[in-house]
Amino acid sequence: MLLVLLSVALMTADHRAGLLEPVRAALSTAVHPLRLAASLPTELVDSADRQLASRRELVNENRRLRDRQAIYEARLQRLDALEVENIRLRTLLDSSYDLGRPVLIADLVQVDLDPFSHLIQIDKGSQAGVHRGQPVIDGSGVVGQVDRVSPLTATVRLISDPSHGLPVQVNRTGLRSVAFGTGRIDALTIASLPNNADIRPGDLLVTSGLGGRFPSGYPVGEVHSVVVDPGRPFSRIEVEPLGALGRIQEVLLIEDSAGGPGAAEGESAASADNAAEATE
Questions:
Q1: pLDDT tens, 134-193?
Q2: Which of 59, 129, 137, 55 is nearest to 95 (CA)?
Q3: Which of 65, 121, 153, 270 would bridge 163 by S-S if both were Cys, CB 3.0 to 4.6 A apart?
């Protein structure tokens, strides 16, 4: 009972005179480090949470930016591809402007370039008006002729095929002959001109128009070499094709003067005999 009365008396005196204020101040100063130590783990956890949240936001933002950059790069590549394709198509159309004939653009579907048969497949067939024997060109020169036709696709035999012969003439002199495929996409050959023929490296060869299949005057190739062997009656002439036979992506099919599908029946686009008839 005495302790209770003493406590009440001290509390009353402290309330009125502030006698215990120095004691409270001293105790507060003494326990302050303890308060800091007790609150430190909580503050560290809160700080770590904030840093982790900030790092997650940065990682997510970085990922979003990388994804956006990848999308933009893909779009840019597509635009570049479209620009290149547009240039190719414009070159094709410009190259056919002087032909004065209907043309049809076709895309490459499949390539078969074995040593014995140089064939490509295009995505246009009889439903689009393609017919057997139809001339095929690209933006630089003659490519080949339609060999087989189905409703939706067609097979083109390239001029580099060993069985293909194409009537040509030297643009400089008008000298006519036949250029045959060699099985190489970068070379044709002429084997029917005598040693004294007026033909030399650098001469441009164009279609002669004989045989009624290809329009005359269309570029075929450039003479690469002329080898004269006194022991042989004919020169060995190698021609480099101007058409991009190894890089075909789009081609033009042109209406030939033979009159379409009916005229192509019974005449092989790869027949060397037909080409030989045009040889002088």
A1: 999 887 889 999 999 999 999 999 999 998 999 998 988 889 999 999 989 899 999 889
A2: 137
A3: 270
Q: Is the pTM of this model over 0.85?
A: no
Q: What DSSP character marks residue 138?
A: -
202 class by beta-carbon count within 10 Å (0-12 exposed, 13-18 middle, 19+ buried): exposed
Question: Do the Cβ atoms of 178 and 193 come closer than 8 Å?
Answer: no
Residues 6+ apart with CB under 8 A from 91: 139
Whether residue 168 contacts residue 161, with contact meaning beta carbons closer than 8 Å, is answered with no
Are 160 and 136 spatial neighbours (Cβ–Cβ below 8 Å)?
A: no
The more confident residue out of 277 and 108 is 108
SS3 222: strand
Q: What is the CA radius of gyration of the chain?
A: 43
| 109: helix, strand or coil | strand
pLDDT at 273: 44
Three-state secondary structure call for residue 140: coil
Distance separating alpha carbons of residues 36 and 28, to the nearest angstrom: 12
